[in-house]
What we know:
- This protein has helices spanning 27-57, 64-82, 85-99, 106-121, 126-149, 152-170, 180-185, 193-214, 227-240.
- By secondary structure, the chain is mainly α.
- It is globular, with a radius of gyration of 23 Å.
- The model is unreliable at 1-24 (pLDDT under 50).
Amino acid sequence: xxxxxxxxxxxxxxxxxxxxxxxxxxxxxxxxxxxxxxxxxxxxxxxxxxxxxxxxxxxxxxxxxxxxxxxxxxxxxxxxxxxxxxxxxxxxxxxxxxxxxxxxxxxxxxxxxxxxxxxxxxxxxxxxxxxxxxxxxxxxxxxxxxxxxxxxxxxxxxxxxxxxxxxxxxxxxxxxxxxxxxxxxxxxxxxxxxxxxxxxxxxxxxxxxxxxxxxxxxxxxxxxxxxxxxxxxxxxxxxxxxxxxxxxxxxxxxxxxxxx
Length: 260
């Protein structure tokens, strides 16, 4: 469902010199070089997503360790490519050019957002990023078994390992208002934990009253609901959004997620 620009084969190879010392490479060509690099990094991210989808949907549990190793390797390569200092120099050489464009233009937005992401990612060692990827992949299979057997104790070591790695990740950055701000920023840029707390308090106050008001008033709204009915409902909703049946699929999974 994502579309990137031209493929890397359509662009010139990057010069082996710092970008600010290459007089023959104008800003437009540098921008195309940036898109080429980001397209490759994006493809590595999609490969990670595909490996994750397969683990959740198709892969037998016995493949967990091998799959964790694959995801660790691809994740390390992706992180190393994205935090390459040469990419940072390229972004820096495009800063003034990007600011000449409208703030919300594609060019200005790509340079601005990528620069911010590069600055943040560059503070994280590749080994730590790879360890987080591996621990998450291994922990998923442990969680599936623990959930099935209602055995929290068996999941606790994996949970602790993942939390410890998250703490190490947070320590890569300057302290903020709250430690979770760093993690939250990865999913919702600039959103603060305090703001989420206020939102949840509002929802808790008003949603509870709404549920109590309508509980039992509508027939057929109490579960459990069969997988067949859930799938029927989901396909109807997605169809109304105009999705092509040949371009997506719906699969049962223990942990609900969406991937594109």
